Amino acid sequence: MNSNYALHEMLEVHEMATFKTICLTKSKTMQILQQDVQVSQQQLQELGGVLSKMTL
Question: What was the pLDDT predicted at 1?
């Protein structure tokens, strides 16, 4: 690795890496939330089916 980088250059690369890490975390969280929405919708449909078959 070339160690002839100036301090401000290393700090800028570190800042970009930090930003991309935050972006990745946000994207993964949104992906998990989307999966939860799909599962919850399916579960609610199943529960609705059970409720519609019940008699009082």
Answer: 58
Instruction: Report the amino acid identity of residue 19.
Output: F
d(CA 39, CA 52): 20
Supply the DSSP string of 21-52, one letter for each residue. Answer: HHHHHHHHHHHHHHHHHHHHHHHHHHHHHHHH
Whether this prediction's pTM lies above 0.85 is answered by no
- Residue written as token pair 């991309």: 20
DSSP class of residue 7?
H
Which amino acid, 13?
Answer: V
